[in-house]
């Protein structure tokens, strides 16, 4: 088997939230690795800590203790500003509720991450290329509130990928969509990430996603468990991916 290249390394990761005089330990000494080119699915019941884990991996939140390394860089040790820049350069995040900016057009929403990263000049071309791939090139000047939810989610996917991140985190990206649109959005996200050998980590409640995954985890009682549904060994990295119909 090809050597696996670690993209995300979790070391003794703990997260607790304090509310009043109550402490809730959501993640407890979580260890694990995610590899280049793999699609990992995080299952777990509501409140188990899936979003918390994705937020910690992206550096949106900081752990109570322990460490997250992305491509060997300690997100945890970075200062806030560094972390923001690192995220901007290397991580794409697809939010459950899209988080599109209502006052910006479709195209402007997608180019924003590149504008922020100072790559404004190549932004339009990269954004249009992705909008083409998600089937929304002709909606470039539309505002998000005029789009269906599936269309909004496709814009959110384009935005998460426009800066060519090595790591894509998706928090229930199909959670708000009807089954058919959800499947289309899933296939699209998978296809775009597989094609470029990106690492995709997705939190979801949809069991239909499981057959597509390289590995399946369950967040339970503060732990990250590999589940019986997991299909080891990992698919060889270079094998072309064909989405079954
Ligand atoms: N900022 C916060 N302050 C206090 N508690 C929080 C905070 N963020 C999350 N939690 C708690 O952490 C636990 C895990 O939340 P999280 O959102 O990670 O769950 P989840 O697995 O993503 O759930 P869902 O499937 O419903 O999205 C929950 O009990 C939640 O109340
Ligand atoms: Mg969640």
Write up this protein.
- By secondary structure, the protein is of the alpha/beta class.
- It has a domain at 38-55 and 79-226: Rossmann fold (3-Layer(aba) Sandwich), CATH 3.40.50.300.
- Helices cover 31% and strands 27% of the residues.
- The chain contains 6 helices and 10 strands; from the N terminus they run βββαββαβαααβαβββ.
- The chain has helices at residues 50-58, 80-90, 106-116, 120-133, 149-161, 179-195, and strands at residues 6-19, 22-35, 39-43, 65-70, 73-74, 91-94, 167-171, 199-203, 215-220, 223-226.
- The strands form 2 sheets. A 6-stranded mixed sheet has the order 6-7-8-3-9-10, with helices on both faces.
- Helix 4 (120-133) crosses helix 5 (149-161).
- Residues 229-245 have low confidence and may be disordered.
- The chain binds adenosine-5'-triphosphate and magnesium ion.
Supply the CATH class of the domain at 38-55 and 79-226. Answer: Alpha Beta
Strands, count:
10
- Main β-sheet: number of strands, strand sense, barrel status? 6 strands, mixed
Q: Report the portion of residues in β strands.
A: 25-35%
Number of helices: 6
Task: Note the main attributes of this structure.
binds magnesium ion, 245 residues, 31% helix, Rossmann fold, binds adenosine-5'-triphosphate, 6-stranded mixed beta sheet, disordered C terminus, 4-stranded antiparallel beta sheet, alpha/beta
